[in-house]
């Protein structure tokens, strides 16, 4: 078992306490261990970040860009080793892990480009002989908390823009998947990021939560995870002048209209639903189908699902990986049991997969449920696993109503050959991300990303939109007359 160090104040450090990291394909043997930092260590991390910010905010944007570009290069050079660790601790296939490592590098490159451009606007001024502009400045020390489902790309999506704009960061990776985030930190460190600008807190949340969230030097928190935790953080910040960017839950729907290419729709829905075993915030978990094509689409869908190959992420034949932990597996299985108790019919799957070598892993068969109503819990609540629920509707209006009948509003898709229906859906669906004839997943680095309602907060991620979170605006007027 490997012993990994974490990054504090520009140094790679260990402690006397450890957290074991397990492979969800076979949980019997730890694959690595990372330091379990204490509350005092967290305070040290903020000490270092405060000092790092004082240096980094005054560092040339071109030097910031160079660091990000060099770090992106290092991620690509180390891609095979990084992907192997992502698969080992998260369970996703090597193909998915390689894609994640490559996209993490893309985030660094993209924000390196924005760092070089600068951020601001020249404004007209009513006063004579006066030029006025706005300039964007870093906000300070930002806490970044990332989840276990995308343990490399989510930290890159968060850290790249805040570093590009001159902020410092304290980064808390998920306890289940810390090694992936440490690869990102090492690339940035090796690229020349000054000491203290990035500090990685590996630790048990229950033991360090107060020190992590309550430090008075925090100016912003960017969080991806469950609504329960996100709301707890938001309430904790209610009386403090701290920005909160939350990418929270989703219950994403795909709509299949009667004029759709049904075979293409079935393939698209399966890709969106079962990639990474459904453990994507944008994964499709609901499908709304117009009645005339419901039976044929369902037949095609089930056939696509049953063609998936369940297995470890290291097996090239695997197309559906294990869930990321025993706790997540058991949660999904409990949701399935409750759905059946509430009247849902299992068309395929619906159980754990313990065959052969999978007996010691976190496997759940890919599942399709029918006879689901708007009151069925699995139609309304996020499952975060390889589970898809079907509903039949009579027309387009009912389909949009079904999509919008949700507390969430992250992503939705429609499959149709009719341009009017596509644009009407884009206008009427209450979601931050809308796809037409493609998957609810797969939003690139330059595309603004974030949901409506309980799926997120007003600050979006990705693209230039994220600058609203990571910078503050200053207005400067210069009078040059006599």
- Cα Rg: 23 Å
Major sheet: 7 strands, mixed
Numbering strands along the chain, what is their spatial order in the largest sheet? 15-16-17-14-13-19-20
Uncertain spans: none
Find the structural class using helix and strand composition.
alpha/beta
Estimate percent helicity.
Answer: 25-40%
Write down the overall geometry.
globular
Distance between the termini: 73 Å
Q: Give the DSSP E fraction (strand runs of 2 or more residues).
A: 15-25%
Task: Looking at this protein, list some descriptive labels.
15 helices, seven-stranded mixed beta sheet, alpha/beta, five-stranded parallel beta sheet, single chain, globular
Please explain how this structure is put together.
By secondary structure, the protein is of the alpha/beta class. Helices cover 38% and strands 23% of the residues. It has 15 helices and 22 strands. The chain has helices at 39-56, 61-77, 79-90, 94-117, 153-164, 178-190, 205-214, 227-236, 262-274, 294-306, 326-341, 377-380, 396-404, 419-428, 467-470, and strands spanning 2-3, 6-8, 11-13, 18-23, 26-35, 120-123, 130-138, 141-145, 168-172, 198-200, 218-224, 243-247, 252-256, 284-290, 345-348, 367-370, 387-393, 408-409, 411-415, 433-436, 452-453, 471-479. The protein has a seven-stranded mixed beta sheet, sandwiched between helices. A five-stranded parallel beta sheet has the order 10-9-8-11-12, sandwiched between helices. The chain has a three-stranded mixed beta sheet with strand order 1-5-4, covered by helices on one side. Strand 13, helix 9 (262-274) and strand 14 form a beta-alpha-beta unit. Helix 2 runs antiparallel to helix 4 (94-117) and helix 2 crosses helix 6. The longest helix has 24 residues, at 94-117. The chain is globular and about 75 Å long. It starts with a strand and ends with a strand. The model has no long low-confidence stretch (mean pLDDT 96).
